[in-house]
Amino acid sequence: MSENNQKFITVSEKGVILAVKLTPNASKNEIIGYCDEYVKIKVSAPPNENKANKKLTEFAADFFDVAKSNVELIAGDKSRLKKLLIKNVSEEFVKQKIFVHDKIET
């Protein structure tokens, strides 16, 4: 499980930044895997009216077991490629949660 130098995880002074490729309108909310560049996440909400972004931050808060106020969308508001800031977690904790999923091809 010791993956090194993943580009989808960056540590900042505010927390851990996670690069995400989002797929809206899925049947359920889930992480389906990761590659070197991003974590692929599906959410059940549609992409309009910011619903998918809201569902993504809620899902990430639940997944990483932090308060919703500790997850912030910091880039990619209107794109499928996004960056989430997750506060009050360590890089190692995020890696442990992500690396239980399969590595995917881009």
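Above is the first protein from milestone M3; the second protein from the same milestone is given next.
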Amino acid sequence: MFSIEAIMSTDLITLPPAATLAEARTLMHTNRIHHLPIVEGDNLIGLVTLTTVLAATDSFLRDQENRIHAAEVLVKDVMITDIATIDEHASLRQAALFIEKHQIGCLPIVTKGVLRGIITDTDFVGVAINLLELTEETEPVDQEYA
């Protein structure tokens, strides 16, 4: 069956705390991701989400001279620091239940303080699709609908 290690993303795109909100927004857009771990070395210290970026981005409706520019805001000033994480040896069921219970979009995988990967709600959709396909392969074909 599936394990956390089997579905977690390990080719992570991360930022240091001194990066700007503009850099975070560009990385998210370019890589089509919604979660950016903020790291010092290999250690996870924060998380910036698309929601964080949108909330911290000033409206273009504000006049130019009073507008806060994303290139002037550091991710360390807007990142989430109270991050829910899970160990890579935890069960996939535990991870799924945690994501559902806390209504979060991602769960960083951290072992002994080191960021090892990340699981997102999208990863769980992939697991569900695979399970549905397996179920369909083992179900008898109903001639009426074939």
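Note on the second protein: The chain has a mean pLDDT of 84.
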